[in-house]
Amino acid sequence: MLKGEKVMKKSGIRYQSVCSLVLVVLLVLVPLFTFAEHAAWDCPNCGRTGNTGNFCGGCGNPSPWNEKSGQPADDAENAKEEETPLIYATPEPSATLNDSVSSFAGQTTISWSAGSNSDGEYKVLIEALNPSGGSKSLLQLAGSTKGTSITTGLLAPEKTYQVTLLNSSYNVLDTHEYTMPSVPTFEDGRLKNTSIKITIEQRSTTLNGKYKKYNPYRASEMESIIAAESAYPCMKFQMQMPQLAYERSFFVQLVYESPNGYTYTDRAQEITFKRVNNGYQTLWWENAGIDFFSDLYSQTGSIPRGEYKVHLYWDGCWIRTSTFQVE
After folding, report:
1. DSSP 19
2. Stretch 229-242: mean pLDDT
3. What pLDDT was estimated at residue 186?
4. What is the DSSP string of 225-288?
5. What CA–CA distance (Å, rounded) separates 187 from 189?
6. In this predicted structure, what is the pLDDT of residue 90?
7. pTM over 0.90
8. Burial class (CB within 10 angstroms; exposed 0-12, middle 13-18, buried 19+) of 180
9. Cα 321 from Cα 312, distance rounded (Å)
10. Which end of the chain is more exposed for a tag (fewer CB within 10 A), N or C?
């Protein structure tokens, strides 16, 4: 055997020995690193405990450990949530009611300044103030209103109102009082306020529409039927128009006022009067004042005795003030 050949065999033996040693080390260390990275886990599917691989030894269910983060999948999701910066809601800018309102043909526009939030949502509360300092009557709570104004027909001439502006969460932004100006007497060509006949009939009505007439009202009976909810005081309010040469539309307001100054706008609507060739055209409300009396009783706990007033306005002009007694 050649000398060189011997040397080669010995070198081969040494090489094989070194390779074997490296392989043994790898076989020992790799599992240790693997198991150190993936701690023992319990299978959520079959309940087997002490699993150390990527799959359950009992049912083969995948490990819940997240390979990238080294955390359980649920914990990895929580870690992501914790890293997300918190976003705080920006508070709504304040808004301020303007010092005056504008009125035209019986309808009043209430406006406010809102700065950068001019397109936001607002709510408007309107209450009629009692001049004697008593209870206020709630006329309107407008639903969500976008923009910086609302228009309503509920504000009557020469009356004082408290307007409250709220944001969409019903937080008060501003409050202001407005006293409405006096208005002229109605006149439209040959049609004057004196041309219109007004009659009122004191009555009460049940939910079934059965009426009972009164002349005059008696406060004790009115209070009794309202409290029992057996009937509701109201009146038939009738308007008679003379012959008209052409059809006309007017914005009509019917405003009730109690002896102690409690004010309530019972009707605010546009009415069209047709052309009439002969005689009178008659229009009426069957249950006028029903909300006024109910609201008055709920606010004060009684029906005051004395003279009541019913003011009628067309297009913001005075037509007539009728009166009736409650004894």
Report:
1. H
2. 92
3. 96
4. HHHHTS-EEEEEEEEEE--BSS-EEEEEEEEEE-TT--EEEEEEEEEEEPPBSSS-EEEEEEEE
5. 6
6. 44
7. no
8. middle
9. 6
10. N
CATH number for the domain that contains residue 102: 2.60.40.10
For residues 202 and 310, state if they share a domain.
Answer: yes
Q: Are 283 and 317 in the same domain?
A: yes
Q: Are the beta carbons of 164 and 180 closer than 8 angstroms?
A: no
Least Cα distance to 31 among 15, 16, 9, 53 occurs for: 53
Question: How many domains is the chain partitioned into structurally?
Answer: 2
| 151 beta partners | 109
Non-local (6+) Cβ contacts of 5 within 8 A are none
Contacts of 9 (CB under 8 A, 6+ apart): none
Amino acid at 174: D
CB burial class (10 A; 0-12, 13-18, 19+) of residue 309?
middle
Query: How is the chain split among helix, strand and coil, in percent rounded to 5?
Result: 20, 40, 40
Say if residue 192 is in the same domain as residue 316. yes
**Which of 127, 156, 179 represents a domain boundary (last residue)?**
179
Q: Which two tokens stand for residue 216?
A: 């005059």
Q: For the residues 41-70, what does the mean pLDDT come to?
A: 67
Q: DSSP for 288-316?
A: ETHHHHHHHHHHHSS---EEEEEEEEETT
Residue 94 has a pLDDT of 78
Give 2's DSSP letter: -
- Torsion from C-alpha of 50, 56, 58, 60, nearest 10 degrees: 180
301 neighbors 319 (Cβ within 8 angstroms): no
Angle at 153 between CA 147 and CA 156, to 5 degrees: 125
CA proximity to 188, closest of 137, 248, 260: 248
pLDDT at 324 over 60: yes
Boundaries of domain holding 256: 187-326
Closest by CA to 204, choosing from 227, 168, 230, 178, is 230
**pLDDT digit string, tens, across residues 76-99:** 444 444 444 444 444 455 789 999
Domain ends where: 163, 179, 195? 179
Q: Cα-flanking dihedrals φ and ψ of residue 162, to 5°?
A: -105, 125
If asked whether residues 200 and 248 sit together in one domain, one would say yes
